[in-house]
Amino acid sequence: MARTVEPVGTDENPPVKRRRESLVPPAVPAPAAPQQAPAPPRPDTSVPTDQVAPNPFNDRAIVADSPEVIEMADSIEARGQIQASPVVTRAAFLAIFPECEAEIGVAIYVQAGGGVRLAACRSLRREIRIDVNDRHAKSRVEFLAVGTEENLKRSNPNAIEIARGVQRLVGEFDGNQSAAGRQLKKSPAWVSQQLNLLRLADEAQQLVAVNRVPVREVRGSLYQRPVVEQIATIEEIIRIRAAKEKASTDEETTGDVADATKVHRPVSRGTLVEKAIRRLGTTPIAIGQTLRGQLSRADREILAEELLRD
């Protein structure tokens, strides 16, 4: 019996619908451009002062109307900022001191040194030139040592402020005075002298700080004596120092008057320079030590720049 074939298109046998394939391949979406990391800050740049937070661990009392800030402001206004202020980035600082986040606020940088320069630039309402170096924040002890070493280099340091910085550094070493001394390149005995200074009565410490009494003059076991004796001893030290300074000033004045009465003969420039060098010291180190006690920090920076200029 012949088989009946249903015609195509009937309900019982609908036609097969074939999808036409496009001869053009689909477009492949372009890969997204990689996000570029923000450019690191330049090592030496100038920024508004509100972008720099003061060092939270600086024990120096820096106020806008202090003589050192006024002197620095005058120097910056006249010659510009000669030396950049060392800072670390916010991220590097908070990585080692997360507890200080509220204290530094929204600042982008944290000062490692140069507190007087920052205060002077703020008083002048001008940008501060900074030197960004996160190596200062590679550890807590490294950051603390930077500030302490800067205070040690000052011409007329405050012994109490330095002692507090040393005490904080010793604390980071869990009380190991030898380790703190190695960090500052100082002997354990020197570290011990700084800590003994902080054992003096508060009134005695204030006398030392205000009158810039060197630690070498109040070291030893003075802290073990009664408060009245501590104060009397320090006041006597201050009186003797003042008398020596007055005598030195009077001697210089007398010498100037005596020189004025002499018949001056022409002296070659080389002879004058040689005499000046002998008076200041016979080696660069000796000369530097002499000038450090006579020149302000701003003047020493100017002198250093002039000596290194070709």
Description:
Helices cover 50% and strands 6% of the residues. It has 310 residues and is α/β, with parallel strands linked by helices. The protein folds into 3 domains: 40-138, Conserved hypothetical protein from pyrococcus furiosus pfu- 392566-001, ParB domain, CATH 3.90.1530; 139-254, Orthogonal Bundle (Arc Repressor Mutant, subunit A); 274-310, no CATH class. The radius of gyration is 35 Å and the shape is globular. The model has no long low-confidence stretch (mean pLDDT 80).
Key traits:
5 strands, Conserved hypothetical protein from pyrococcus furiosus pfu- 392566-001, ParB domain, 310 residues, 3 domains, Arc Repressor Mutant, subunit A
Strand content: 5-15%
Distance between the termini: 120 Å
Number of strands: 5
How many strands, which pairing sense, and closed or not: the largest β-sheet?
5 strands, mixed
Structural class, from secondary structure content? alpha/beta
- What letter string, H or E per element, gives the SSE order? EEHEHHEHEHHHHHHHHH
SSE arrangement:
Layout: E1 44-47, E2 52-53, H1 67-79, E3 85-89, H2 90-96, H3 101-104, E4 109-111, H4 115-124, E5 128-132, H5 140-152, H6 159-172, H7 177-184, H8 188-197, H9 202-210, H10 227-261, H11 269-280, H12 284-292, H13 297-308
Parallel strand pairs: 2-4, 3-5
Antiparallel strand pairs: 1-5, 3-4
Summary of the model, kept short:
By secondary structure, the protein is α/β, with parallel strands linked by helices. It has 13 helices and five strands.
